[in-house]
Amino acid sequence: MGSATFAPPRRRHSTAMMFATLFKFSAISLALVAAQQSALAQPASSVRFAIPAGSLSNALAEFGRQSGIQVSYLPDYASGKSSAGVQGDLAPQQALQAVLAGSGLTYSFTGSDSVTLHNAAAANATDDTLQLGTITVTKPKAADPADVPYQTAGSLTHLSGEQIDRFRGTSVGDLFSGIPGVLNGDGRNSGAVDVNIRGMQGQGRVPVIVDGASQETSIYQGYNGSTSSTYIDPDFIGSLDIERGASSGADATGATGGVVRISTIGPKDILLPGQTFGVRIKGGLTTNSKTAPAAGSYGGVGYSGGAEGTQNRPAFLHPHGYSGSIAVANTSDHFDITAAYAQRNNGNYYAGKHGHGGGTVQDDGIGVAGTLTPYRNGEQVLNTSTDNESWLLKGNIKFSDEQHLELGYSRYLSTYGHILGSQSQGIIAPMQYQGVMSTIDLATWTARYGWHPADNNLIDLKVDAFYNNIDNRINSTVYTDRLYPQYFWVGSDRKGATVANTSRFYTDFGDFSVQYGGGFTRENSGLPSGISLENTPGLLAGRDGWRKESNGFGSLEWKPRQWLTLSGNVRYSHFDSMDKSSLLADNYKRSDDGWSHILSLTVEPVEGFQIYGKYGSVLRSPSLFESLSGTSFLYPANNNPVAPERNKSIEFGINDLQEGLLTSDDKLRLHAAWFSNHISNYITRGNLKSKSTFGDYYNYVLGRLNLNYAEMRGFELSAEYNIGPVFSSLSWNHYTHVMFCAPSEVLAPGAADCAAGGIYNSFSLQQVPPRDTVTLNLGAHALDDDLTFGTRVNYVGSRYAEGMGSTSAPGQVAGSYSIAASKWHPYTLIDLYANYRISPNASVDVALDNLTDRFYVDALNTIPVPGPGRTLRAGVTLKF
């Protein structure tokens, strides 16, 4: 039976229509911008100053911030003195003279962006007065985003658009490879992102925020668990920032593991230098894949031997996958606009040929599943294809240099192969086969407002608001003599907003920064619009209900000395949920609340070298998935509600950022940290103890529960060293302790209460990280920096603890309805990459992923399928 029988209708537009729409929109935007362009750019030598009258120290701090010039002086020079301030478009020298008028101070420039103040009387003295060293009190110019992670009390990673293009791999989640403590779970299923940070994953523990919006969706994996999915096209990612550990950000409510923040492309990613209008066109080809076969086609090995037709791997230089995008941007003094469209199509990929763990066919023709997967080396991996379309539209209204409003809309449509975890584990069917395609339709609206008056230190306001709607139709099928449909269709929407304002104070007792604000989210889950159980055969009842959460927070940073920084954050959050499941007699509503707090201290004994300590106690309320009754939770929510979980985390680390260390043109970035997570009331699923009414034995009753605790401890290292045209980096993450412990006498007999490999039948079984991950990157620039080339080596070690904690007493725990622990062998992947800039308008990228054609199964897999074998990617970028 063809796939069209089960796949729901999908709204698509032809490429020609979309390109025409984009160009029409660009023409309209040009007309709007031209009508608004009236202000002339200020001369390069002038700066618009707005420094209010007040204390001299405050005025000097504002001068440094507005001019980007570093001002140094002894604290006594400004103590007790005032300034009349300055307003208008002036050269920095003129503005500084006005600020210092009547103070008895003079100045001298020690560089193009640094100035030192002197006592005029002392400068004119003829005696041998000893002049003490100066103290910097103003902030330097904006830091390089790549430097910020090495100047912050915590563990951060910044990826530029160039780095994302370089290491995007076959699946979207591949861009997270090589970051210490960070992995993507279930990375070969549906093209989604499900980030694991330091062993914490899913259900809002690591929110992925795209332009201020969250669109995480929990995807049911049958009895084999659940994955939390976020979707975005890589061509639309302008930059990415990952914060590991406790976060005080306005968007970090419930983020017990960390936060991933993605910024989509804008004019700076599209326009050529000095241009106000531009077009960027990207195109790419990919090898090592082929169009998915008909639904019901076998793969892997089964009882009767190996499937035919799945080992006809295409020639190495024969591409079947492609991607393409067009982005248009315009910028002016009052308005920015960005419009983009992307297509991405990749068939089922093929596994590598070299390695162990795959299935085999014996001489007698009997197929034997491998230790890791039924798929054979070099075989097509079924249900890994994707066919995507994406749109992006953003407009930024700049009311002034101090105030702006950005409005955005994005759309993501995908037809993809979905692998139900239960099916892949052999729970539902013994063999691997091509299923019916699934679809997702995701629409997101965003609004981002900023207001930062140059003459007011009390206002630095940021507001983010969003709404998204998701229609996700997962088509799972059971194959016996024919395909039997099982539809897991979800319709959900989410809306939310965050507000944060920062006030800054510069005093003789040090610099203070106070941030305060709040936010809310509301999620609804049910069936897609217009769908009901009665009119859709094969559709299984999903979760039905809503969840809302609100929070308020405040943060204080105090810098009493240049070498010392103390900060603290406190947050109160409250959540409500409503379960409207048909499994309940009546709707079930519950609520909870609590406080979170974070403290940190940073010491910088030598400029560029920091030592820090950080403590967090972060509360996470049950997610929407955890709050509602549904399949795989046989105990309904009103019978066993779960309490919020709390992560008490500790982190100690060092940062070192040095230039000119060994030569005049080298640079060192170094970060090392030890971390500890202790999550009390950790929320998961398990086989709960339930005495049968039919005899003296126990049922397998699946329900949500709070563990006593879960723990993860370890350390990480990130180092970068650049010298001349050569660049290098090394990252390492190592876990020293992982443990999960359930309350005694709660789990069904035979299940261990404590285990490093995860609790029996719990989601934690698929989130136990590898003991070690190591990444080495070596590269160089050549031909006047037009050519960049290099290699990256990724090593992923063995699972911290093999298997699960269970004695599997016969007739009790050992049953077919069990989440299988993720399983992989250690593997090393070698990638090569090169980029050549032909001209300012054109560049070519070439990458060879998995150079040695390694056969491997990804760490943190929900489904035991191998990753892609050797794959050649080639692309071109044009800018006009």
TrEMBL record:
PROSITE patterns: TONB_DEPENDENT_REC_3 (PS52016). It comes from the Bacteria. It is found in: Cell outer membrane. Transmembrane segments: none annotated. The keyword Transit peptide does not apply. InterPro entries: Beta-barrel_TonB, Beta-barrel_TonB_sf, Plug_dom, Plug_dom_sf, Secretin/TonB_short_N, TonB-dep_rcpt-like. Keywords: Cell outer membrane, Ion transport, Iron, Iron transport, Membrane, Receptor, TonB box, Transmembrane, Transmembrane beta strand, Transport. Residues 69-120 form the Secretin/TonB short N-terminal domain. It is a multi-pass membrane protein. Belongs to the TonB-dependent receptor family. PANTHER family: HEME_HEMOPEXIN UTILIZATION PROTEIN C (PTHR30069:SF41), TONB-DEPENDENT OUTER MEMBRANE RECEPTOR (PTHR30069). This is TonB-dependent receptor plug domain-containing protein. It comes from Candidatus Pantoea multigeneris. The lineage of its organism: Bacteria, Pseudomonadati, Pseudomonadota, Gammaproteobacteria, Enterobacterales.
